[in-house]
Amino acid sequence: MICAAVGRDHLGSIIFSITEKNQATSPLVGEIRAAILGIKEALKLKIKFCVLEGDSRAVISSINTGAKY
């Protein structure tokens, strides 16, 4: 499976785009890995403020609430 993340600034301009080949076992795991990929890249680029968007409400809600698994 290929995961991808795109970072944009407040004007919608692309700051980064990144892909990663991985062995995700389900679409949910793929969404989680894509979120992590984007967060890691934003941290690497020292981006101070970030809005995370994705297709999986479960993943985004878990990140926003700090759910522990």
Automatic annotation (TrEMBL):
Annotated InterPro entries: RNaseH-like_sf, RNaseH_domain, RNaseH_sf
Gene3D superfamilies in the record: Ribonuclease H-like superfamily/Ribonuclease H
A single MF term (Gene Ontology): RNA-DNA hybrid ribonuclease activity
Cleaved signal peptide residues: none
Superkingdom, natural source: Eukaryota
Residue stretches making up the RNase H type-1 domain: 4-65
Protein name according to UniProt: Ribonuclease H-like domain containing protein
